[in-house]
Design brief:
The protein is of the alpha/beta class. 47% of the residues lie in helices and 14% in strands. The chain has 19 helices and 13 strands. The strands form three sheets. Strands 1, 2, 3, 4, 5, 7, 8, 9 and 10 form a nine-stranded mixed sheet that branches. Strands 6-11 form a two-stranded antiparallel sheet. Strands 12-13 form a two-stranded antiparallel sheet.
Length: 383
């Protein structure tokens, strides 16, 4: 009642030729609405792994594809993993898919116990998703997410969030859906989607929570400053193993270490005076190691948009067996990508090929029951 007339939604459904294929089970308890942009046929290893884990956790899955490209090849595989598939023309990104699917599927999902919204800007899983599901189950929050940010305004980050009935059935949420204008530009999708959702629910007093509270993440990142400097010293002195050092050409290692040390010092000072940062970028390594965060932001591996100098630590933080599915989940043509300021670091096709080979070998060993413990784990690697 009083939510609005959904005229923007009706226009979007017509313009984007939204199509639903399949049906969710009756009387579902948990629903996952998984928004993806994947113009290739079939599914990436990340898509498959995430949906297999969701299925094992008891979720009914609505897979929302933000393009009609390669639709037949996609459907032939997607129906094995998802109960329902939504196809549409490209535009509007994840929030457009979520708003449309929520409204169209309400009669099927409206009585669920909770609704999980996620997108494929997250690669992985790079660790067990079990702690994430346990954190959600134990939280009393009606509006819950993996992480929160205080950039621009306090908000729960929307790459993965969950709603319980107190939020999903609230007038505030349905007003948000009815008033959502379906912008096309990313900056407006963030402003009216991610920020707008948090403003609507937090402003209505909906109880909220996150798995990795921002203040705790910052504290953990600052506490690891000596370990990061030790890594840079090892890099400058050519003491890293060949695989990890392969991300940085030998002639650039000392200059990079000097630049990175200055960058890290500046960031530490900024955080201590209260400047805000996006945790999924700046603190990605601490999230994975210390907070059981099971993903990596895709564009950290494809563009590093804010020039995070710790990206070369990927091989130390993410276990070897995660590399093959992680890298294969990047759309063809994305690589090579620049990692760092002014192209200082370049993730070349040759490096990627070597990582993929390593991952395949690890996968073969796993299938034969001969899995070696990653060398990084002995040096305080992924936990």
């Amino acid at each position: 009642g009083g939510a609005g007339d959904f005229s923007a939604l009706e226009r979007f459904l017509a313009e984007k030729e939204v199509q639903l294929i399949g049906a969710l089970p009756r009387r579902v308890k948990k629903v996952a609405l998984y928004a993806i942009y994947w113009p290739e046929g079939g599914l990436s290893p990340t898509h498959r792994a995430v949906m297999a884990r969701l299925r094992a956790e008891g979720y009914a899955i609505a897979l929302l594809k933000d393009t009609r490209e390669e639709a037949d090849a996609f459907l032939s595989v997607a129906r094995e993993y998802a109960d329902l598939v939504m196809l549409r023309k490209n535009g509007g990104r994840d929030f457009a898919s979520w708003v449309a699917a929520t409204a169209l599927l309400f009669e099927q999902i409206g009585e669920a116990e909770h609704w999980l919204y996620l997108n494929d800007s997250l690669l992985g899983p790079v660790s067990d998703m079990g702690p994430m599901f346990a954190a959600l189950a134990q939280s009393p929050a009606e509006f819950w997410a993996l992480t929160e940010s205080f950039e621009q305004t306090h908000h729960l980050q929307s790459s993965l969030f969950a709603l319980r009935p107190g939020a999903f059935l609230s007038p505030a949420f349905w007003r948000f859906l009815a008033q959502y204008p379906f912008p096309e530009e990313k900056i407006e999708i963030v402003r009216q989607g991610e920020l707008g959702l948090s403003q609507a629910l937090l402003g209505a007093g909906i109880r909220h929570g996150v798995m990795a509270p921002y203040a705790q993440v910052v504290e953990a990142w600052l506490a690891e400053a000596p370990a990061r400097l030790e890594w840079l010293d090892a890099l400058a002195e050519q003491r890293l193993d060949a695989e990890e050092a392969a991300m940085i050409p030998p002639a650039l290692r000392a200059p990079f270490a000097e630049y990175a040390a200055e960058w890290l010092k500046a960031e530490e000072e900024a955080l201590r005076r209260g400047d805000m940062r996006n945790p999924q970028y700046y603190f990605w390594d601490v999230l994975i190691r210390r907070f059981a965060y099971p993903f990596l932001k895709k564009d950290l591996a494809t563009a590093n948009p804010v020039n995070i100098v710790t990206v070369p630590m990927l091989r130390r933080v993410v276990a070897r067996e995660a590399w093959a599915p992680l890298l294969a989940s990047l759309a063809p043509g994305v690589m090579p990508s620049v990692l760092g300021r002014e192209g200082l670091l370049r993730l070349t096709p040759e490096v990627l090929a070597r990582w993929r080979d390593d991952g395949r070998k690890a996968g073969d060993a796993a299938s034969s029951g001969k899995v070696a413990r990653p060398r990084q784990a002995r040096r305080g690697g992924r936990r």
